[in-house]
Specification:
InterPro entries: CellSynth/LPSAsmb/PSIAsmb, TPR-like_helical_dom_sf, TPR_rpt
Pfam family, one: TPR_10
Strand content: under 5%
Number of strands: 3
Strand order of the largest sheet: 2-1-3
CATH architecture of the largest domain: Alpha Horseshoe
CATH class of the largest domain: Mainly Alpha
CATH topology of the largest domain: Serine Threonine Protein Phosphatase 5, Tetratricopeptide repeat
Keywords: Repeat, TPR repeat
Number of domains: 3
Protein name: Tetratricopeptide repeat protein
Number of helices: 19
Radius of gyration: 32 Å
Structural class: mainly alpha
Organism: Christiangramia sediminis
Order of helices and strands: HHHHHHHHEEHEHHHHHHHHHH
């Protein structure tokens, strides 16, 4: 009989505990209805230690209310993480309302991370983006963005950890981005899918839908890992990381470009240039590759080769003004030697004759360069440096009317 009395007492105690837990969960619901998130959190904290005493339905409600409580008001990054985990638990138990709350919270996490990035609070942005990834492991793009923000925050150890995780996942990142302009903010946003983009356009909150091709990010990831190791002067690890990436993706031209950049940063510029020339031979459709090779030749004063590659870049894309400006600079590099010799001449008849020769040579150089400058101004009419250079050349050639016209532009 004593055993029966004790058992009955224990059952009674458990029943009373469960009733108390239900009351606290109900109190949290009432507090949420009143917008009192602090009180809701307090009630839920009391209920949580004995949560196992409640049946599944009440536990489901507990996690739903916890998600709402921590997502409400002005949540911190830690609050958002707590809310997300609670919503996730409720979703796993079959709660549809929690699924909606989780979707809204994920969107808030991303928007908040973007806001942090704009404020250059990269560590906080990374934390929120990683939480977004944890909520849905298939959304590896958020892990990639978290790693990038950690690089910006100079938290290289954690950034490398995330980047290596991406490598293990064989993350590629290529695909399509379904974007549209948010009418309220004027910003173009990635809406995730064709279906979602079409839906948001119909709400009249977005306009100008666009489907953009997203290239593979494997090269960028390898480049980031190498860049981190290079910043730490750990060149062996940088080379090993790049070799590993190339072994698994031998046809990825982005990796070759990243490798070239790595050797360039390490000071091995000849090797960097050789790799870029290999890239150019495999893909002659990228003007930037030709332009970068031209820059490398310009750095070793091989003007002829530099100009050759700038011209190749312009053959691919006649509007690629960066190559055109570099070509102008390479051609005008001859001017310095001409002017130095002119300034060092004396006043003898022979010196005066030589001066006239050099001056004529200089003017011919200007005439050779002017068509490139005129095209550069046509492509980028607001570039003041290009306009100033053209104005100076017109002045030296005695074409004062054209020089004055450009001066009025400035």
């Amino acid at each position: 009989m004593k055993t029966n009395i004790l058992t009955a007492a224990a059952v009674s105690f458990l029943t009373m505990t469960a009733v108390a837990q239900k009351d606290e969960v109900k109190n949290a619901e009432d507090a949420l209805d009143d917008g009192n998130y602090t009180e809701a959190k307090a009630q839920l904290k009391i209920a949580e230690p004995n949560l196992g005493e409640l049946n599944d339905k009440w536990q489901e409600n507990f996690y739903l209310y916890k998600g709402k409580a921590y997502a409400g008001g002005n949540p911190t990054a830690e609050d958002m993480k707590t809310a997300a985990m609670a919503f996730q638990k409720a979703v796993e138990m079959g709660n549809d309302e929690a699924a909606e709350g989780l979707a809204a919270l994920k969107n808030n996490l991303i928007q908040s991370a973007i806001s942090d990035q704009n404020k250059e609070d990269f560590a906080s942005a990374a934390d929120k983006l990683y939480t977004s990834y944890e909520l849905s492991k298939k959304d590896t793009i958020y892990l990639y963005y978290a790693a990038n923000n950690l690089v910006q925050a100079q938290d290289y150890d954690k950034a490398t950890e995330y980047l290596e995780m991406l490598n293990k996942l064989d993350y590629d990142g290529s695909g399509k981005a379904y974007t549209a302009v948010n009418i309220e903010t004027g910003e173009r946003e990635n809406l995730g899918s064709q279906q979602q983009m079409d839906l948001m356009i119909k709400t009249n909150q977005y306009k100008e839908p666009q489907v953009e091709k997203i290239p593979s990010k494997k090269g960028e990831i390898a480049a980031l890992i190498a860049r981190i190791y290079i910043s730490q002067k750990n060149y062996e690890k940088a080379i090993a990381a790049m070799d590993k990436a190339k072994a698994t993706n031998p046809d990825d031209l982005g990796l070759l470009q990243a490798e070239a950049n790595m050797y360039y940063q390490m000071g091995e510029k000849d090797k960097a240039r050789e790799i870029l020339e290999e890239v150019a031979s495999k893909d002659p459709s990228d003007p930037e590759t030709f332009n970068n090779i031209g820059i490398m030749y310009a750095e070793i004063d091989d003007t002829k080769k530099a100009v050759e590659y700038y011209e190749k870049a312009l053959e691919v894309d006649s509007e690629f003004n960066e190559a055109r400006v570099n070509l102008i600079a390479a051609k005008l590099a001859k001017e310095r030697a001409l002017i130095d010799e002119m300034n060092n001449l004396g006043m003898s008849k022979k010196d005066n004759a030589r001066y006239d020769e050099l001056d004529a040579e200089r003017k011919e150089l200007y005439k050779e360069v002017l068509p490139y400058l005129e095209k550069a101004m046509e492509v980028d009419p607001d570039n003041k440096d290009i306009v100033k250079t053209a104005m100076n050349l017109y002045t030296n050639l005695g074409e004062q009317e054209k020089a004055e016209e450009l001066k009025s532009k400035l």
